[in-house]
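Can you please make up a protein's amino acid sequence together with its fold in token form to help me picture the idea?
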Amino acid sequence: MSEKLSIGDEVYVPFTKLGEDASGHSALCSTKILAINKKNITVNNPRSKKSCVVYKPFIHKRFGICILRIGDFGSEESLLDPLAAALTNYIKLLIPSEFVYSTGIRTTEELCEIVSRTGDLYTIFVLVGHGNDISIKFGSSDFGEPSDITSCFESSCKHPKLFISLCCKTGRRSFAKEFSSSRACSYLIAPPSSLHAAQASNFFQCFFWYHLFNGHSVHTSVKKTHRLIPEIKNIRLWQKGLIVKT
């Protein structure tokens, strides 16, 4: 939570951090801030009608996930579409559907058009496609450089985003250093090597289980996912051009 908080703001808090079971349709609870101090905030528990003290990093002032399937024509039907659908269906088990947007694109122009219209509605962007150590593949032959992608967000969005790239090799320094240095990027999570679609889905589900359901920070959620699934421990967390140790 990096945005400024004020008393009366509507925020989203994991039910588990309110001492409640997340037995409804969402792992997050919409509530209002009653009081603020240096490390914690006090919010109203809509179920018990009592106030609860919550550690600031567990708070989401704005929230939304955009899943972008970046097509290549050749493997969309057999690979990219099923993976994007699996991610979308899973995340809808954790948060309401209105907080989730999933679509397919094939060009950086389409990316910029989507971001210009909806970018600040979403705090997390998930990139599903093919990559190499310097770029992400758009369409049948065009490879988008890191700056091609981040410039779309820098020109349209006020707040930095968490990016999760499930495109192979985009966690390597040659791509991730420049991408994560952008003012549009708060964190980049990406693999430095090839990644099977089932591994990508497994990481995604485990990460968001910790991040949304249990309310852990991005760093802690990646760390816990690495410990739980050693086979995908090489997926890296980048921030401001540097690898964050997990």
